[in-house]
Amino acid sequence: MLTSVDNDLIRVLADPLRLRIVTLLARETLCTTHLVQETGARQTNLSNHLKVLREAGVVDTEPCGRFTYYRLRPEVIETLAGRFADLAATARANADTKRACP
Length: 102
What we know:
This protein has helices at residues 4-14, 16-27, 32-39, 43-55, 74-93; strands at residues 30-31, 59-64, 67-72. By secondary structure, it is of the alpha+beta class. It has a three-stranded antiparallel β-sheet with strand order 1-3-2. A hairpin with a 2-residue loop joins strand 2 (59-64) and strand 3 (67-72). The two termini are 26 Å apart.
Protein backbone atom coordinates (compact mmCIF):
# COMPACT_ATOMS: atom_id res chain seq x y z
CA MET A 1 0.00 0.00 0.00
CA LEU A 2 1.21 3.50 -0.78
CA THR A 3 1.93 5.70 2.23
CA SER A 4 1.67 9.46 2.63
CA VAL A 5 5.47 9.61 2.19
CA ASP A 6 5.07 7.77 -1.11
CA ASN A 7 2.33 10.18 -2.15
CA ASP A 8 4.61 13.14 -1.39
CA LEU A 9 7.39 11.57 -3.43
CA ILE A 10 5.02 10.93 -6.33
CA ARG A 11 4.02 14.61 -6.26
CA VAL A 12 7.69 15.63 -6.25
CA LEU A 13 8.46 13.42 -9.25
CA ALA A 14 5.28 14.38 -11.12
CA ASP A 15 6.76 17.72 -12.18
CA PRO A 16 8.19 17.36 -15.72
CA LEU A 17 11.38 19.34 -15.01
CA ARG A 18 12.10 17.45 -11.79
CA LEU A 19 11.53 14.15 -13.60
CA ARG A 20 13.96 15.32 -16.30
CA ILE A 21 16.53 16.21 -13.63
CA VAL A 22 16.14 12.78 -12.01
CA THR A 23 16.52 11.10 -15.40
CA LEU A 24 19.74 13.04 -16.07
CA LEU A 25 21.11 12.29 -12.61
CA ALA A 26 20.44 8.59 -13.11
CA ARG A 27 23.12 8.68 -15.81
CA GLU A 28 25.76 10.75 -13.98
CA THR A 29 26.46 13.15 -11.14
CA LEU A 30 26.04 16.71 -12.41
CA CYS A 31 26.46 20.26 -11.14
CA THR A 32 23.87 23.01 -11.53
CA THR A 33 25.69 24.40 -14.56
CA HIS A 34 25.42 21.05 -16.35
CA LEU A 35 21.74 20.78 -15.47
CA VAL A 36 21.06 24.29 -16.81
CA GLN A 37 22.76 23.32 -20.10
CA GLU A 38 20.90 20.01 -20.35
CA THR A 39 17.43 21.27 -19.46
CA GLY A 40 17.47 24.85 -20.74
CA ALA A 41 15.86 25.95 -17.46
CA ARG A 42 16.88 29.16 -15.74
CA GLN A 43 19.37 28.68 -12.93
CA THR A 44 17.04 30.06 -10.24
CA ASN A 45 14.17 27.84 -11.38
CA LEU A 46 16.47 24.83 -11.49
CA SER A 47 17.82 25.58 -8.02
CA ASN A 48 14.28 25.67 -6.64
CA HIS A 49 13.52 22.28 -8.17
CA LEU A 50 16.79 20.84 -6.84
CA LYS A 51 15.87 22.10 -3.37
CA VAL A 52 12.56 20.23 -3.57
CA LEU A 53 14.35 17.05 -4.70
CA ARG A 54 16.94 17.44 -1.93
CA GLU A 55 14.31 18.00 0.76
CA ALA A 56 12.39 14.94 -0.48
CA GLY A 57 15.56 12.86 -0.14
CA VAL A 58 15.74 12.07 -3.85
CA VAL A 59 19.17 13.63 -4.40
CA ASP A 60 22.34 14.15 -2.37
CA THR A 61 24.72 17.07 -2.77
CA GLU A 62 28.48 17.16 -2.92
CA PRO A 63 30.29 20.51 -2.70
CA CYS A 64 33.22 20.80 -5.07
CA GLY A 65 34.92 24.19 -4.93
CA ARG A 66 32.38 26.81 -5.91
CA PHE A 67 30.09 24.22 -7.49
CA THR A 68 27.58 21.82 -5.99
CA TYR A 69 27.20 18.43 -7.58
CA TYR A 70 23.96 16.45 -7.37
CA ARG A 71 23.68 12.68 -7.20
CA LEU A 72 20.52 10.59 -7.45
CA ARG A 73 19.75 8.33 -4.48
CA PRO A 74 18.68 5.16 -6.33
CA GLU A 75 17.37 3.46 -3.19
CA VAL A 76 14.60 6.08 -2.96
CA ILE A 77 13.47 5.31 -6.52
CA GLU A 78 13.80 1.56 -5.89
CA THR A 79 11.60 1.79 -2.79
CA LEU A 80 8.90 3.65 -4.68
CA ALA A 81 9.15 1.21 -7.60
CA GLY A 82 8.81 -1.67 -5.13
CA ARG A 83 5.64 -0.15 -3.71
CA PHE A 84 4.17 0.08 -7.21
CA ALA A 85 5.24 -3.51 -7.94
CA ASP A 86 3.48 -4.64 -4.74
CA LEU A 87 0.38 -2.70 -5.76
CA ALA A 88 0.39 -4.35 -9.19
CA ALA A 89 0.83 -7.81 -7.64
CA THR A 90 -2.11 -7.16 -5.30
CA ALA A 91 -4.26 -6.08 -8.24
CA ARG A 92 -3.33 -9.24 -10.18
CA ALA A 93 -4.06 -11.47 -7.18
CA ASN A 94 -7.45 -9.84 -6.64
CA ALA A 95 -8.49 -9.36 -10.26
CA ASP A 96 -11.55 -11.60 -9.77
CA THR A 97 -12.53 -10.16 -6.38
CA LYS A 98 -15.65 -8.07 -6.64
CA ARG A 99 -17.63 -6.49 -3.82
CA ALA A 100 -21.35 -6.92 -4.17
CA CYS A 101 -23.43 -3.78 -4.47
CA PRO A 102 -25.88 -3.21 -1.61
